[in-house]
Every structure is written in structure tokens, then in C-alpha cells.
Design brief:
The chain is built from 4 helices and 10 strands. By secondary structure, it is an alpha+beta fold.
């Protein structure tokens, strides 16, 4: 009776059909980034486990079969096939974004600190003006760094990634050493 219940639950909650339907929205050839638990240094998924360290591999999407995700990860190499149970996340490229805001923040910090240090060093020999040079350098360096960082950041473009939903519920059935089966369910919130 227990085996029948486990089998019925496994069939009802099996992720392969849901997985295939959701990821087929990604057209072949599109750039993807896969977070997985496989060792792919040799160009093939040699060791895969849900407990293995998490790795991220990018490449061109090919297709999803009943049990694996296939994509071109290495130029000139055979397509990489990862078991679906080892895939944690898939992301697709949604264009590029500018880094102007990050550039402004970094420029503000560098300009403020740099201006204060230069201002202090410029007035260090004047005993009558302690700290005035540092404050003046800070006030002048902050906007210069802010503008410079914003301009540099506007020219730096990075890819914008969007996560593709894997599935809401994953069920796994594993045989135990004593002949029984174990059912594992994990929900995504």
C-alpha cells in the first residue's frame, strides 16, 4: 500500500512535463545562464548532485528533454547536457543595462576621500588652517567624483538577466537500502 501511494504521488508531482512546458518559451540559440550542481570543467557534466557545490555556466540554449537541459556552453565543444535534478536556476539575457548609478556612488566615495586627502596635504604646512583644506577638498572633490563616476558608469554596460521559472514543486523518489522507497517534496515560494 505504501509503495502505491508513493508511486501515485511521484507521478502526480513529477516535474518533467511542467519543466519542459515552462522552459520551451526560451527559443533555441538564446543566451542563458544556468545555476547547477555539476562539475563541468572537462566540458561534460561528470559529477552532478543536488548536494554538490553550486556552479554557474552560461551558453546558448538548445532544448529541454524529459530529464536534461541541453545547451552550448563551450565554443567548439559538444553540447552540454545537465540533468534537470541538478539544475537550480535558469536565467535568460534581457538586454543590457547601464551602470551609471553604481558609477556615481563609487565616484562620490573616491572624490570625497581623494578631495579630503589632497586638501589636507595641501594645507598641512599651514598651522593656522588646520582641517580647512580637508573640508575644502571634500566639498570640491565630492561633486567632481560624482559626475566623473556617473559618466564612466554610463559607458559601462552589463547584461540584464531574468530568471525563468523552473517549477513550483519538485518530487523525487529514491530507493533505500532496506528495499523501501523515500519520497522527497520541495516547494518553491
Amino acid at each position: 500500500m505504501r509503495i502505491a501511494i508513493v508511486t501515485i504521488l511521484a507521478v502526480l508531482f513529477a516535474p518533467t512535463d511542467t519543466w519542459s512546458q515552462e522552459t520551451e518559451r526560451v527559443e533555441p540559440g538564446r543566451q542563458i545562464r544556468v545555476t547547477h550542481g555539476c562539475d563541468v570543467r572537462s566540458g561534460s557534466a561528470s559529477r552532478c548532485s543536488t548536494r554538490y557545490r553550486v556552479a554557474r555556466t552560461a551558453g546558448a540554449y538548445r532544448h529541454v528533454s524529459d530529464d536534461s537541459l541541453v545547451f552550448d556552453a563551450f565554443v567548439g565543444a559538444a553540447p552540454l547536457s545537465l540533468p534537470l535534478e541538478a539544475v537550480h536556476r535558469i536565467e535568460v539575457v534581457q538586454g543590457q543595462k547601464s551602470r551609471w548609478l553604481s558609477g556615481m556612488g563609487l565616484g562620490l566615495v573616491v572624490g570625497t576621500v581623494g578631495g579630503a586627502v589632497i586638501g589636507y596635504a595641501a594645507t598641512a604646512d599651514e598651522p593656522s588652517l588646520p582641517g580647512i583644506g580637508a573640508v575644502a577638498g571634500l566639498v570640491l572633490g565630492a561633486p567632481v567624483g560624482l559626475l566623473t563616476g556617473g559618466i564612466v558608469g554610463a559607458f559601462l554596460k552589463t547584461e540584464r538577466w531574468q530568471s525563468v521559472p523552473l517549477h513550483d514543486l519538485r518530487a523525487t523518489v529514491a530507493p533505500q537500502t532496506d528495499g523501501r522507497f523515500a519520497l522527497g517534496l520541495s516547494a518553491r515560494f
